[in-house]
Amino acid sequence: MLPETKVTIIIAAYNAEATIARAIASALAQPEAAEVVVVDDASRDGTIAVAKAADDGTGRLQVIAQSPNAGPAAARNKAIAASISPWITVLDADDFMLPGRLKGLLAASVDADLIADDMWQVPENSVDGPRVALIGERMHLPATIKLVDFVRSNISDTKRERAELGFIKPLMRREFLANHGMKYQEHMRLGEDYELYTRALAHGARLLLLPAQGYISVVRPNSLSSLHSETDLQNLRDCDHALSSITALSADEQRALRQHYVSIDCRLQWRLLINAV
After folding, report:
1. Are 223 and 121 in contact (CB under 8 A)?
2. Strands 132-133 and 143-145: what pairing?
3. What is the pTM for the complete model shown?
C-alpha cells in the first residue's frame, strides 16, 4: 500500500467501555488504517482496559490517557499530534464503520482536502436494524460543498428538513491542516467539528461529499452532543464571530455565518429563559 493512502483514525473516548471495542475493531478492519489512536478523556469506567484489550496485534493501535477531562476537541488534538499518517479521520467511540469505507473515500481523494460521505443512522437498541441516511435524497451526491451551503445546512428551518453537515466525519488532509495551523478549538464541547470544517472551507479547502460509504452513527438519547450546557451553546454561537474575521470571506459567506449565529443565539436565549422560569 502506498504511504499516501494511509489513514489515521482518531477516537476520543469518555466512559465508553460498552462500545469502544466495537469502534476499534471496525477501525482496525480497514486495510487503509495505518494508525488507530484512542484518547481516553479521563473516563471513570473501564474504557482504557477494554480499548487495550481490543488490540489485534498488528501494532496499529495506540491508547493514550488524557487527564483531567478536557473534552473531545482536546482529545482529538492529542491524537493528531501523536500520529503521522497523511489522512486523518474521526470515529466517535459509540459509532463504527463498515468494511470498505476508507477505500471508497480514498478512491475520490484527488484534489480534495476533506472527503466525507453520507452517514447511516441507527438507534442504539438496533444497530443492525434499518438505517436512515443523514442526507439521503435531500442532496444529489457526489457534490462539492461550499462554505455557504455547509453553514446553512446547520441552521434550523421549519420549511425544510435539516441535513446537518456538521455531523459528517471526513478524511482530512494532514498537510492542509498543518499548513494553516488548524486544530480543534479546545474550549468548545459542542460544534467543534462545525467550527473546524467551516474554518477549513474559509481557507480554501475543497470538501467533497459522497454517497454513504459505511459510517454508522449510533443515535443515543443521552449522547454528549445532546447534553450541552449554556456555555457550550455560547461558545458555538461565538465561534461564528471568530470565523467572520477571516478576511477572504465573501458577503454571502459572512451572511451565512451571521444567520448561523442568530440561530444558535435563539437556542441559547430560549434555554436561559426556561432556566430562569
Report:
1. no
2. unpaired
3. 0.93
